[in-house]
Design a protein that fits this description.
Distance between the termini: 16 Å
Number of helices: 11
Largest sheet: 6 strands, mixed
Strand order of the largest sheet: 1-2-10-7-8-9
Strand content: 15-25%
CATH topology of the largest domain: Rossmann fold
CATH class of the largest domain: Alpha Beta
Number of strands: 10
Helix content: 40-55%
Shape: globular
CATH architecture of the largest domain: 3-Layer(aba) Sandwich
């Protein structure tokens, strides 16, 4: 879908929305791509259970639960914080897909990657296939790297929202020669993401690709923060173009991108593909 908008056309820029979120109703966009090769690896390694981590409103937990049901894996979701009843819609959906939910207090959750915490989880749930929070690992990066070649439009700049860094790492790795990627961090204080994208690309391909950069200035107060100016942008975009960006991820991306364009930071003639990750 090409966005026809005088605010960008007057700057000589063209913009397309690439709706990867419509690929699968249960596993939209980058969720399916991140899980694709991980599910293959879990099967090849003889695992019958997937274990992963997320917050109480995690779309990743929802996706892993749905993928487990679809592909015959038991699933365990380790949720940050204390249990609350009734379950919110995200966790209720995951539970309805068969996911077993367990909880870690915030201190233990911060240490979820350490051996004492992992050993305790293995003791309770057995030798599960471990998926990191957000699903971002080298296999996830490989899956996301397949997307750029599928777009079917000419572009110079590929943009995506960034939570854990895996999608940006993969998209940048799959870009055609001459194209670059720009990721918009949705977290406040997300300078660590540059190191994380570098780590993921090095783990996947042996070295970072060097064709990407991060915007750290359009988080609008932090993850899940939706201040009035962001909501107003999303509403205006919906009125103009018939698509309402979600304010957690895509809204921040588009608002930040429009800010770059208005400031003349995107060169005239640039063709931009915005990935709606879902």
């Amino acid at each position: 879908m090409e966005v026809r908008d005088e605010r960008i056309e007057e700057r000589g820029v063209r913009l397309w929305l690439c709706r990867d979120d419509l690929t699968d109703p249960e596993l939209p966009g980058n969720k399916l791509r991140k899980l694709k090769y991980n599910l293959v690896a879990a099967r090849e390694q003889g695992h019958s259970t997937l274990l992963t981590f997320g917050g109480a409103y995690s779309n990743h937990l929802r996706a892993v639960a749905a993928a487990g049901r679809r592909h015959g894996f038991a699933t365990v979701g380790v949720v940050r914080g204390e249990p609350h009843e009734p379950l919110n819609p995200s966790l209720a959906y995951a539970a309805a897909q068969g996911m077993r939910l367990t909880y870690l207090d915030r201190d233990a959750y911060r240490r979820k990657h350490t051996e004492p915490v992992l050993a305790g989880l293995r003791e309770r749930f057995g030798d599960c296939y471990l998926l990191p929070e957000g699903g971002s690992n080298a296999l996830a990066v490989r899956g996301c790297a397949e997307l750029p070649a599928e777009l079917g439009i000419p572009y110079d700049l590929l943009c995506c929202p960034v939570g854990t860094g895996g999608t940006l790492a993969g998209l940048a790795g799959g870009l055609p020669p001459g194209a670059t990627a720009l990721g918009f961090a949705v977290l406040k204080g997300a300078g660590f993401l540059a190191d994380e994208v570098t780590r993921l690309q090095t783990e996947t391909w042996g070295a970072p690709t060097g064709n990407w950069r991060l915007d750290l200035d359009h988080h609008f107060g932090g993850y899940a923060k939706t201040p009035p100016d962001l909501l107003a942008f999303c509403t205006d975009f919906a009125t103009r173009h018939g698509y309402r960006p979600d304010p957690i991820y895509t809204g921040k991306l588009l608002a930040g991108l429009y800010s770059h364009i208005a400031a003349g930071q995107i060169p005239t003639g640039t063709r931009i593909a915005v990935i709606i990750t879902g």
